[in-house]
Amino acid sequence: MNYTEFKDAFVDSFQDYLPAQYQDWEVRLLETVKVNGCYDTVVVMPPDGMGGSPNLYVEELFEYYVRCKDFQKVCRKAASIFVMGMDYISKLGAVPIVDLPEDRIIFSLIPQEDNERLLADTPHRLTMDLAVIYRVLLDAEDGGFDSTMITNDIAEAWKLTEERLYELALENTPEILPLEVIEQDGVFSILTNERHTLGAASMLYPGALKDVADKIETDLFILPASMHEVFVVPDMGQDVLDMHRIVADANMYLSHREEYLADHAYYYHKETDQVCIPKWE
After folding, report:
1. At what angle do helices 71-92 and 3-13 cross, to 10 degrees?
2. Cα–chain-centroid distance for residue 117?
3. Over the stretch 36-72, which tens digit does the pLDDT of each residue have?
């Protein structure tokens, strides 16, 4: 089966693989707007249309089908993921999102390109070719965390402007997700946070880049590895185009396209405490 045939067959058949309590639920195919693109998504909705449902991403299921060549095995796996997701939602769902406290608002960085539809529905601010968006942190039972994106509707319900969201996130994010600088033999450092999740936003933390630059007494090239971390490299006279190429080449090995941040380097000027996209001759 090709992708389209698989998608149609999965939507038609998935109901048969669900436990008995979900047999009267409706399987729907939706287009979900996420970071860095739109995705074909299957959800299973209760008869009253109310309540949450885990998203099943058709592209990921198709990739699994290509590997295993067993359609029934894919459906059984998807059903298992759905059941686990419903259990997870029930545990997280005790607190309505509109009641969550302001001290759990954080920010993350995403690329502007390919995210126009998402940005149209979310409070954000633009910086170079990136965008700052806002999320609410949710504790998970295993001691980890999950987060949900703040949409215009949520911000309106909270009566929070983008300016106020940024103010809160700038204060909260370094406290909730503390900066971690991992030095690599003096050649470069990795800038992230202690959870290694959404860590590229750590370069927005007050003083984060300046502290690294002051320590080594040079300006910095910033090489985005993903939304979760960036490499900072001392400016030792490297060719700017080579720095851009390193980032572009590294992106070829990203396992999930939603983690993509940029295909070029950035540059931090120590004297002005500013970040820009460096030009090359």
Report:
1. 60
2. 15
3. 777 788 888 888 766 667 788 898 899 889 999 999 9
* Those residues with Cβ within 8 angstroms of residue 133's Cβ, 6 or more apart along the chain or in another chain: 107, 108, 109, 110, 118, 119, 122, 123, 124, 149, 150
Q: 124-141 as b/e, with b when 16 or more CB fall inside 10 Å?
A: beeeeebbbbbbbbbeee
User: In terms of Cα–Cα distance, which of 157, 81, 154 is closest to 123?
Assistant: 154
Contact in structure between 112 and 119 (CB atoms under 8 Å): yes
| Contact by Cβ (8 Å): 254, 226 | yes
Tokens (6 digits) for 3: 């992708």
CA angle 152, 119, 210 (to 5 degrees): 105
The Cβ of residue 202 has, within 10 Å, a number of other Cβ atoms equal to 25
User: What's the Cα-to-Cα distance from 152 to each of 121, 159, 164, 174, rounded to whole Å?
Assistant: 6, 10, 13, 24
For 166-216, the pLDDT digits (tens) are 999 999 999 999 999 998 877 889 999 999 999 999 999 999 999 999 998
**Which residue type is seen at 65?**
Y
Entry pTM: 0.75
- Adjacent-strand bridge partners of 108: 133
